[in-house]
Design goal:
CATH superfamily of the largest domain: Transferase(Phosphotransferase) domain 1
Mean pLDDT: 78
Structural class: alpha+beta
Number of strands: 19
Number of helices: 11
């Protein structure tokens, strides 16, 4: 392919599940551009193509310094294409892969720009739905650009059906994996994954298979964050964990809030560094001794060389602290309280009904719609708050035999399985809907 419309193709920049991106030249405007040609398999149905054009036009209305400009939209040989501004620099994935030695402040400055771009997009009613390091470009001057609004959608769009999975699994919010309706808070979850990975160079929900990853995202807490990776700044951990809350209502409700929190941390780092430099200069002026300044995260310590004379106060040992009668009473009280809790859990709160556990991994993701016991009675309340239970999931039921029915909106089919649950044991069931090609759906969402 030498031309796409009026654009002259120079070379391939990248290729993914959604299509191919080319470096091209616009002969009329005399400038380089990036042209993304969408894959045939993404547009099998007319309504999909219609949705793409509608949503791409909406994304094309965005004008912000941290969002890639969309210049044009067209079609060649039946394949839709998007023309975007050509960007230099590198994407955030390369920085993470190389584990580039950036300071916490440096990384937060990048993340704050991502927040500003996405917050602007949300204010215009556009949800990105595929926030990940590959879609964040860092220019040579340090400016951040959010790329690839190819699967973005207006918040008011009614064309995305429940059960349609779009995005990249590792960065999906729980509601995306479940095939439920998404809003701007799904982007906030994806941003939380991106921020975690940028700061730690690790994923919060790692796994060797898509089933494992999706289960962790929906049901498990993220991997613990190393203090060193976040410079011992506990506020950073709080930001990440709030972004990664399972329920949308428990997350930040706007990325403007996240940016404000990060700006406070950045100002605190600036103030701390300025104070350390001032103290260092003051110390050098007041004494002829050689003093070394070492930095460890946010904590700065002054070390005097070993051959320097030690002060009398430094040599004097500190007196041991004594525990008074009040301290003894408090300690005894705390111990008795803990023992009471343990005894309550053992002898009082233990359920009378024997419980077994069932771990369900059904491919593709499916909704548990009905559970019937061996006596033909339907079990109610397995979704304790009336919510949908989407696999992969784990259920706790009284020991016994059950028939469980699943439905999957992606293929419009149902599946029924029989299981035997024993007390205290975990029964693991992995099934595929007959005739369903799981690799096909994975290629579409990656």
């Amino acid at each position: 392919m030498s031309k796409i419309g009026k654009y002259e193709i120079l070379k391939v920049l990248g290729e993914g599940g959604m299509g191919i991106v080319y470096e091209a030249f616009d002969p009329l405007m005399q400038r380089k551009v990036a042209v993304k040609v969408l894959s045939d398999r993404v547009f099998d149905l007319p309504e999909i193509k219609e949705r793409f054009y509608r949503e791409a036009r909406s994304a094309g209305q965005l004008s912000h310094e941290n969002i890639t400009i969309i210049h044009d939209l067209g079609e060649t040989d039946g394949k839709p294409f998007i023309v975007m501004e050509y960007l230099t620099g590198t994407d955030m994935r390369a920085i993470i892969k190389a584990q580039t030695d950036f300071s916490l402040q440096h990384k937060l400055l990048y993340a704050a720009q991502v927040c500003r771009g996405l917050a602007y997009s949300h204010s215009k009613g556009i949800i990105h739905r595929d926030v990940k390091p590959e879609n964040i470009r860092i220019l040579d001057d340090g400016k951040v650009k959010i790329m690839d609004f190819g699967i973005a959608k207006p918040a008011t769009s009614t064309m995305t059906q429940t059960g349609t999975v779009m995005g990249t699994l590792l960065y999906m919010a729980p509601e995306q994996i479940k095939g439920l309706r998404v809003d701007h808070r799904s982007d906030i979850f994806s941003f939380g994954v991106l921020l975690y990975e940028l700061l730690t160079y690790k994923l919060p929900f790692p796994g060797e298979s898509s089933t494992t990853v999706s289960y962790k995202i929906v049901y498990e807490e993220p991997e613990p964050i190393d203090d060193i990776a976040i410079g011992n700044v506990s506020e950073v951990r709080q930001i990440i964990l709030k972004c990664l809350a399972k329920e949308p209502k428990s997350r930040y409700q706007s990325l403007n809030e996240v940016e404000m929190e990060m700006e406070k941390i950045i100002r605190g780092i600036d103030a701390g560094e300025s104070k350390s430099i001032a103290e260092e200069k003051k110390g050098k002026a007041a004494s002829s001794e050689t003093v070394l300044l070492e930095s460890s995260g946010r904590r700065n310590k002054l070390h005097v060389p070993s051959d320097a004379p030690k002060s009398e106060s430094a040599q004097k040992p500190k007196a041991a602290r004594r525990i008074g009668a009040r301290g003894v009473i408090i300690s005894v009280g705390a111990t008795l309280a803990v023992m009471a809790i343990v005894l309550y859990k053992i002898f009082i709160s233990t359920p009378a009904v024997p419980i077994g556990h069932l771990s369900l991994n059904i491919l593709p993701w499916a909704e548990v719609t009905r559970i019937v016991n061996s006596e033909g009675l339907e079990i109610s309340g397995f979704g304790s708050e009336g919510e949908k239970i989407i696999t992969p999931c784990q259920l706790s039921l009284p020991a016994g035999n059950y028939s469980i029915e699943f439905t999957n909106p992606l293929i419009g089919d149902s599946l029924e399985i029989s299981v035997a649950i024993e007390k205290g044991k975990i029964e693991v069931v992995t099934r595929k809907f007959p005739g369903f090609d799981y690799s096909e759906i994975l290629s579409l969402i990656q």
